[in-house]
Amino acid sequence: MTTSAQSGRRRDARESSAVSVVAVPAGHPYVRAVTADPSVHVLPDPPVPGAPSGVWWPPPALDPGWIAANRAEAQLLHIHFGTESFSPAHLVACIDAAHAVGWQVVFTLHDLDHPQLSDSSAYVRQLDEIIPRADAVLTLTVAAARVVRDRWHREAEVVPHPSVLPPDAVVPRPAHDAPLIGTHLKDLRPNVDGPATARAIVDATQRIRGAGVPVEARVLLHDRVRDETARDEVLRICHDVPGVSVTTHARLDDNALHHALSELDVCILPYRHGTHSGWLELCWDLGVAVAAPRVGFFDDQHVDGSVQGFIPGDGDSLAVALQHLLAASPRPGSAARASLIARRRAERANTDAAAVAHHARLYRRLIQERAR
């Protein structure tokens, strides 16, 4: 029989193991996913002066004064995204301030080559300061951890990317006769090479159709883009090409995005540079095969054959990757794809739980080490 004193001691033990974390940013879906342990309390993102609600950048928590003023609110600082808004010296001052108030510092290396920047040299200089000073470094793939070891002589803990598709999402099951490949250029951010991707898709589509496979290709992009010249070039390249269509649209909500991806036999990533891809993870969740340019570590995120690499901008290389994936992957709307999605959801339940537990254990270990 459990006494009230025993219940109290257990409750006290749970409360004493609770961890308060300043995560930068707290509101990002990746951060919410890996900090879902009930014992981990993540402080909300401080409001950004002059910005609408929900905007976390540039992150006010990455400020020595803010850290000092909020020293009693947390035990640990975990940096994920948003460093590009600051100088290396400012980031050093933030880490020093965190250590001065007794916080441990964790850094997750999502990117070695920043997707929002045309030139990542300044960002890499930030990494040169952050990685040696962090108390723990995480990353998403073994290949990225190898770079951390070789360049910065740190051992990064590898925690694979969590699922992107919500567990309660209803997966669409659209079906069509002809094989459908596609790419989503979105708003043509700096690491998206719209024209080169469009040329490669046109070349690959014509090669595959010439071999007797009636493949169709779809190119999607936002109606408001960062590079209108690149947008116009994409429209020119794809104009009046048999089997290739271009659609501009407003930013898709989650349901529309899931439907658009689920229609595809293969999704083609349009990146000129990058490291890891959340878009790839969403495709994996939805059972959609991915052709990924051979940059960064996209094909290291899943090594089950569902991702095939190609030389960026090269239509012949892309055609080879597409032909392999089209032959090996279940069709949209089929029972085989539904079964694949179910298996992957079950696998994600385990790997996501492991990622959450890994973060909670790491936080507690670092805090205990600091206390000693």
Describe the model.
With 372 residues, the chain is an alpha/beta fold. It contains 13 helices and 12 strands. It has helices spanning 4-16, 29-34, 64-69, 88-100, 121-133, 142-152, 194-210, 228-238, 254-262, 278-285, 298-301, 315-328, 335-371, and strands at 19-24, 40-42, 76-79, 104-109, 136-139, 157-158, 180-184, 216-222, 244-249, 266-268, 289-293, 307-310. The strands form 2 sheets. It has a 6-stranded parallel β-sheet with strand order 2-1-3-4-5-6, sandwiched between helices. A 6-stranded parallel β-sheet has the order 9-8-7-10-11-12, with helices on both faces. α4 (88-100) packs parallel to α5 (121-133), α7 runs parallel beside α8 and α7 (194-210) packs across α12 (315-328). The chain is globular and about 70 Å long. Mean pLDDT is 95; it is low at 1-15.
The total of beta strands comes to: 12
Estimate the mean pLDDT confidence: 95
Which percent band covers the strand fraction? Answer: 5-15%
- What letter string, H or E per element, gives the SSE order? HEHEHEHEHEHEEHEHEHEHEHEHH
Q: Which secondary-structure class do the elements indicate?
A: alpha/beta
Q: Which strand order spans the largest sheet, edge to edge or round the barrel? A: 2-1-3-4-5-6
What ranges have pLDDT less than 50 throughout 5 or more consecutive residues?
1-15
Q: What is the gyration radius calculated from CA atoms?
A: 23 Å
Summed up, the helix count is 13
Gap from first CA to last CA: 36 Å
Briefly say what this structure is:
44% of the residues lie in helices and 15% in strands. The chain contains 13 helices and twelve strands.
